[in-house]
Amino acid sequence: MGAWGEKAFENDSALDWFNDLEAEGVEALRHLLESVAETDDADYLDIDDGAAAIAAAEIVAAARGRGRDRLTKPVIAWLDANADELVEEDIVLAAAAIERVVTGSSELRELWEEGGADSPWHADVRTLLTRLGSTARIGVRKPVFEKADETEKQALLTFLRARGLEPTEAQLARIVASESAAEVRRWLARALLAPSVADVLEG
Fold it and tell me: Between 88-103 and 120-131, two packed helices, what is the crossing angle to 10 degrees?
């Protein structure tokens, strides 16, 4: 990477992604965040996806009135033209993606940690996580298998029903029976865009 700064838009990966976003629109932003959020904690998340996810999350937070001053002028111009398409549920998706960048296997996080665990980048991402309503701690790795939280399952069911997607008895039983936090979080990430409960559960 030629440009390498701690801010979201101070690296080539984020700038290249933003150029693509200008051509592809809001759905490209959601698909990126969904892809990062769904990446298993044990799988290596490359630096380009990690940096782009942070940039995307900054845009989502700013669209919901949280941190517009952290964006560049071109990004603000894009946001002004597209803000109405970003909704509150995008905050949940953005938070899940950034939590994956900072707590799972992540090239971006590991590179910044080479200089210690309290760099300007760490401080900047902690600010972003706070604005997204996340309590994730940077550098605290999730266990390979983390048990599912009942609150996350309930949030999934609530969101599905709000979208008019009612699980069948078999689908409901599968959600309730899941013991994997990673699985439930993948379902939550898919739930924003998936056209059916089957697509949420099967990807």
Answer: 150
